[in-house]
Request: fold
Amino acid sequence: MKPLANPPIRVALLMFLVVSFFIGLFLPGQARIIQEMKMTYQNQNPADLVRVIKDLQQRKDELLTVESDLSQKLSAYAEAADDVDAQILQLKKETVSLEEQVGGGTLVGPGVRVVIREESSGASPSILADEDLLLLVNDLWASGAEVMTINGIRLRDTTALYRAGLTVRIGSAATHMPLTIEAIGDAEDMAKGLSFPGGALDLLNLRRIGAIVQKVDLLRISD
Amino acid sequence: MSTAGRRTTPFLAALLVLAGGFGYLLVSQFEPNLNKAYIAPAQNVELVEIMKGLEVENEKTAQGILQLRDETASLEIRGGAVNAQVRELTRRLGELRTRAGMTDDAGAGVVVTLDDSAKTPTLSDDPNYFLIHDNYLRSIINLMRRYGATAIAINEQRILASSAIVCAGPIILVNSSKMSPPYVITALGNPEILSEGIRQDVFFRVLENYQDRFGITCSLEKNLSLLVPASLSASPFSYAHGEP
Reply:
């Protein structure tokens, strides 16, 4: 091998190599520090932190309501310790409320109706994916839906949603597109919850899936 | 300038640039705040304090709810001991509370654990592949329901039909409660059917692939003795009412 003729060039090359080596050594560490700092709460986008705080505040309100209800119930039980009729009345009241929650009959209330249609024309028809439907339903729950049906089938704790070819499975029931989702709750909140930028409706539009949201004064949901 | 001098000038210039860059990296390695991009926005410090305060308050209220439920149950049992109708109504209430997810459930099932990768993404990597996202949790829960789960929880949060799983940046919220990884998703049901169904699903296989390539954690275990905690927020409806 022919030696490099000029000693200053050799020295410069050597230094070049040494510096490059250290830069290579430190760069991953630098990337790691950036990554770790991004992950700390203090470095999050303030808008995200505000969103978390709003959710935690909502959770606090929910929990305080439950706690207050339980305290009242406890006081009522204590007062009715010697009054069997009062105890029965108290228990019946809670039974009716829980039967509504777990699906013991027909429920009515205001809410939204969302109709979802796939685009069947054109070279590449649009298809609603499981994730799209899960996101849409999730956004409705997140914005305050209390009860929900898809094509008349009520969603429960154990209901899975998935496509099986052209069929849409809602738990053990089968249905087809188009889908009509009805949700009872605060209609304003739910309509807003669906239309925020980057939310479920934006995603559906990008996939060329039509979604029409309509506020309804009185929905009727039965088993 | 001599010929040798002209030859070494570019090298020395490059060396100078590299040494400058190296010096900057070295300093910022030990003093990250030099880079303004790393300085936490002032309001964030306050926001994080508020967030932590709310978490503590919510935890305290949750404990209070559990205690009140215990006290209520004791009074109901006492009432049931002296009257048959009270006893029957209490039994019916117990069933309804179980169906509403207001009681702890125990039994056999499976546990899926998901966690962010411990690996550091290189500059050419998409860091999203190294993190667990809210849609992963939604899809796993959907799979568990599909294969017969009767009760599900993520960490300590009971999953009901109305449980929303949302993200705010990298923070995942379940039932409006902030979750921290690892995400331990517990499902009661037939362990064989659940395990087989989930393992065979394309989505779970994709996550296993991410585990191999990017280092996230994605595991599934069968277990004969699992506990799914009660929901704390099952409050009566505000908008939905029984048809008159």
Observations:
- Chain A has three domains: 7-42, 46-102, 107-221.
